[in-house]
């Protein structure tokens, strides 16, 4: 009799040492804060809106447009195990490639205030500032945080003469912002050593487990993490990082009976986020997926039957996406 699904996934990662894990930063995610974005409007409501429209119209900037994660996507963050804004913002920053802040709305000033006190995120910051803020050189914003950030990372502060929503947001300004974004994406680190205390690395490990072992439930992810020595990852932490992965377009979920199963979004299904290592060599993604699928097909109990139904449902979802539905 073959191994159960749970036995299979635990045996796959047995012998792995997280100290040898490598994180692959191949999926670009850009967290964007700023003024109003109204996709139904025929005119741009803000500079942030202009960037959204401009990248949608330019093939060269498709990688940017497809990676934009608007702050509004997280309006219900407090319902998903986040008791404070600081932890939430740190998790987003750790998982994001870049943080793009347009200083044109009260909400973006809050984001700016949170990140300007975090030097570890300065290399990820791009702050777009109205010229009038800079001209008022006695202002707190100019003399304080902006100058400090600019002194550490020169291309993190971009200044343009845009004033308010009634002005025209020039293509030249948008082009310059986009080129700066591309430069930062291309010059950023492509890999890094796994750090268990970095919530972004932990989120990518969770994504990799989902990518290789889907359809998988939350408690099964938790068991694999514990088997890797990550006992400090409590249920609440796992729940909030799964929430971030869903909102940042890495994963989704489907329900079968009373069970919820997680799976990778089709566009990142082949994006290897973590390179594992074992005492007998590395882990091959294809062989892992084959072992997982075999364990699902051989299972005969109620949970195995539900997982098979989840596989069918997810396959249909992937097919619909490929067909443009």
TrEMBL record:
InterPro entries: STM3845-like
NCBIfam families: STM3845_fam (NF038232)
Protein name: Retron St85 family effector protein
Protein species of origin: Shewanella zhuhaiensis
């Amino acid at each position: 009799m073959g191994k159960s699904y749970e036995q299979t996934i635990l045996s796959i990662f047995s012998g792995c040492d997280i100290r040898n894990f490598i994180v692959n930063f191949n999926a670009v995610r850009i967290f964007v804060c700023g003024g109003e974005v109204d996709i139904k409007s025929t005119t741009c409501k803000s500079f942030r809106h202009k960037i959204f429209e401009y990248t949608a119209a330019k093939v060269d900037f498709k990688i940017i447009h497809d990676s934009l994660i608007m702050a509004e996507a997280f309006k219900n963050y407090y319902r998903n195990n986040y008791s404070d804004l600081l932890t939430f913002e740190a998790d987003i920053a750790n998982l994001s490639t870049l943080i793009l802040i347009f200083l044109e709305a009260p909400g973006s000033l809050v984001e700016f205030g949170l990140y300007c006190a975090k030097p570890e995120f300065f290399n990820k910051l791009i702050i777009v500032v109205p010229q009038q803020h800079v001209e008022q050189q006695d202002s707190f914003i100019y003399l304080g945080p902006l100058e400090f950030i600019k002194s550490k990372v020169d291309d993190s502060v971009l200044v343009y003469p845009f004033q308010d929503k009634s002005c025209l947001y020039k293509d030249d300004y948008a082009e310059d912002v986009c080129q700066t974004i591309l430069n930062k994406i291309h010059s950023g680190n492509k890999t890094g050593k796994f750090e268990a205390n970095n919530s972004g690395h932990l989120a990518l490990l969770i994504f990799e487990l989902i990518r290789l072992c889907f359809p998988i439930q939350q408690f099964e992810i938790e068991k694999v993490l514990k088997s890797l020595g990550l006992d400090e990852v409590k249920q609440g932490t796992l729940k909030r990082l799964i929430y971030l992965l869903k909102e940042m377009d890495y994963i989704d979920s489907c329900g079968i009976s009373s069970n919820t199963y997680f799976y990778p979004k089709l566009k990142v299904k082949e994006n290897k986020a973590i390179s594992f290592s074992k005492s007998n060599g590395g882990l091959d993604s294809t062989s892992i997926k084959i072992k997982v699928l075999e364990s699902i097909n051989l299972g005969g109990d109620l949970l195995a039957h539900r997982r098979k139904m989840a596989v069918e449902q997810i396959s249909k979802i992937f097919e619909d996406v490929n067909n443009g539905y």
